[in-house]
Design a protein that fits this description.
By secondary structure, the chain is α+β, with helices and mostly antiparallel strands. It contains 8 helices and 5 strands. About 4% of the residues have low confidence.
Amino acid sequence: MTPNVVTLAPEQSLRQAIDTLVTCRIQGAPVVDNGRVVGVLSAPDILEFESTVGSEPEDEAEDDVEEWSEGDEWSSSYFTDLWTGREEDVVERVATEGRAMGFLDSHTVGEAMSRTVCTLPAELEVSNAAQRLLAAGVQRAIVTDDTGFVGILSATDILRAVAEHRLTVRQMVFVK
């Protein structure tokens, strides 16, 4: 279990959340509002949210797309035509035209988070915790005790404990 958990707030932008996840080298984090866990945000949640909200701006024209047909000669003009007459810096173009850039800034963690939270009691044995993670189909669970939220248990935590020989019960898991 990881006791000092990085948390996100529901009102944070997706850009801020991604920056936090990348900086902390984690793939997901609990979302906390007024001291209460209200959800979990992970990389797959962000990808799923982006795909369901819509990935193409509605005003983008498709009429000027020239389709390649078998037998046509390969041409690099597709790529060079995209940049013709474009003198501004690439960074400036991405900042002003990049759909993903605006998308991440205009949506919040609360919109994209999973609202179903898997919780485990702090005294639960590791094997039972692993079974619960598998049954719930999740990679991490919130660990609680009488005082509330005390940490997070991830599949990586369990793998690390196995690899470091920190588990006291040994059982064969590959039965023939």
